[in-house]
């Protein structure tokens, strides 16, 4: 099962909205077939493993990191019939699939076919691997990561908004790696005005070329559609799609101008004259976006934190101090009056990246 989990992890960043799945076929104590789900719409892990094993799969054991699918409302055929036809004698599954279309039905069909089924081997590790998928299936909303580059005293920009570059090359390269693994990246329109970012994943050795890397959806929160039509996030839509979350306050003419550029304009209900974050996440979940990385600025960070919608933080800290009451802190808005209102972060992890340090942690309890 450890081998199957290692294989499954190779699909990180390419399988969404599907889970990462690995499969290993073992006959007479030897691995005779293996595979993993490489990308959404492509063959599942079971297909690769059983095709590789061929006739050796008869009376063998199939190890799967997730319950095999049995429903037909998708782009690929169900895997349960293939497993039954292969002649395997036993199937070991790490965890059940929480998808209501599966949810134990795949295991039941295998048992009815006379195949021995064991469930729970390395279940915790399998759940951690697919925590994003599990969160999306159970809540209907993307798993939210809040990312920021900051000084030791928690500042993300000077009083004038200057923030390039707080952290060094290794930290920035790590961010691009993260971008390549999420479905969408979000910023507020003020960040577009200040930095005019591309919001693309540019991996090491690719320079400005992004076509060979799976690009996340670039999501801009802009309640009244103030975004300039020449902003860099509105370019290269064919390879780097862009969506704008706005409200009914926005100009219909501007909406049509943006849509003519193939930008997805999402008109979302308001909350305090701004885009309702919660309703926007529901819309994103319906679109099949399972993970969202929020890259600021401070007011957008505050909105997500205030609503309790952040699942994990990635804070890249540079060994510098900025100081000043008018510099830009990680979280905007008003400070709470009492310490009991503080936001707790658990499962803290630290990773050195050159001169900088990445501190990550969880904010909300994991869904069981």
TrEMBL record:
It comes from the Bacteria. NCBIfam families: eubact_ribD, ribD_Cterm. This is Riboflavin biosynthesis protein RibD. Pathway: Cofactor biosynthesis; riboflavin biosynthesis; 5-amino-6-(D-ribitylamino)uracil from GTP: step 3/4; Cofactor biosynthesis; riboflavin biosynthesis; 5-amino-6-(D-ribitylamino)uracil from GTP: step 2/4. Binds 1 zinc ion. InterPro entries: CMP_dCMP_dom, Cytidine_deaminase-like, DHFR-like_dom_sf, Eubact_RibD, RibD_C, RibDG_C, Riboflavin_Biosynth_HTPR. It catalyses: 5-amino-6-(5-phospho-D-ribitylamino)uracil + NADP(+) = 5-amino-6-(5-phospho-D-ribosylamino)uracil + NADPH + H(+); 2,5-diamino-6-hydroxy-4-(5-phosphoribosylamino)-pyrimidine + H2O + H(+) = 5-amino-6-(5-phospho-D-ribosylamino)uracil + NH4(+). Signal peptide: none annotated. Its cofactor is Zn(2+). Pfam families: dCMP_cyt_deam_1, RibD_C. Its EC number is 3.5.4.26, 1.1.1.193. The lineage of its organism: Bacteria, Pseudomonadati, Nitrospirota, Nitrospiria, Nitrospirales. PROSITE patterns: CYT_DCMP_DEAMINASES_2. It comes from Candidatus Nitronereus thalassa. In the N-terminal section; belongs to the cytidine and deoxycytidylate deaminase family. In the C-terminal section; belongs to the HTP reductase family.
């Amino acid at each position: 099962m450890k081998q199957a989990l290692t294989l499954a992890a190779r699909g990180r960043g390419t399988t969404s909205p599907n889970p990462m799945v690995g499969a290993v076929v073992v006959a007479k104590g030897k691995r005779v077939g293996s595979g993993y789900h490489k990308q959404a719409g492509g063959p599942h892990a079971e297909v690769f493993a059983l095709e590789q094993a061929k006739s050796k799969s008869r009376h063998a054991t199939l190890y799967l990191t997730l319950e095999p699918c049995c429903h037909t409302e998708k782009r690929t055929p169900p895997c349960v019939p293939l497993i039954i036809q292969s002649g395997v004698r036993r199937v070991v599954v790490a965890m059940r699939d929480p998808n209501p279309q599966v949810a134990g039905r795949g295991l039941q069909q295998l048992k009815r076919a006379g195949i021995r089924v064991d469930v729970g081997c390395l279940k915790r590790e399998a759940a951690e691997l697919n925590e994003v998928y599990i969160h999306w299936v159970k809540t209907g909303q993307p798993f939210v990561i809040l990312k920021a580059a900051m000084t030791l005293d928690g500042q993300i920009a000077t009083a004038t908004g200057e923030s390039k570059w707080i952290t060094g090359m290794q930290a920035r390269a790590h961010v691009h790696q993260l971008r390549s693994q999420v479905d969408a990246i979000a910023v507020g329109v003020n960040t577009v005005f200040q930095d005019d970012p591309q919001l693309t994943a540019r991996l090491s050795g690719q320079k400005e070329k992004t076509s060979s890397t799976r690009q996340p959806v670039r999501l801009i929160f802009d309640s009244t559609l103030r975004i300039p039509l020449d902003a860099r996030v509105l370019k290269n839509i064919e390879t780097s799609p862009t969506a704008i979350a706005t409200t009914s306050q926005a100009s219909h003419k501007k909406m049509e101008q943006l849509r003519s550029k193939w930008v997805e304009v999402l008109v979302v209900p308001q909350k305090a004259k701004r885009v309702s974050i919660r309703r926007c996440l529901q819309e994103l979940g319906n679109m099949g976006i399972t993970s969202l990385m929020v890259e600021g600025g401070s007011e957008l960070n505050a909105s997500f934190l205030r609503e309790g919608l952040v699942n994990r933080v990635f804070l890249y800290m540079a060994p510098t101090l900025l100081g000043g009451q008018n510099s830009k802190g990680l979280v905007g808005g008003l400070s709470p009056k009492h310490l009991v209102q503080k936001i707790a972060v658990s499962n803290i992890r630290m990773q050195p990246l050159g001169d900088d340090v990445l501190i990550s942690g969880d904010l909300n309890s994991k869904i069981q």
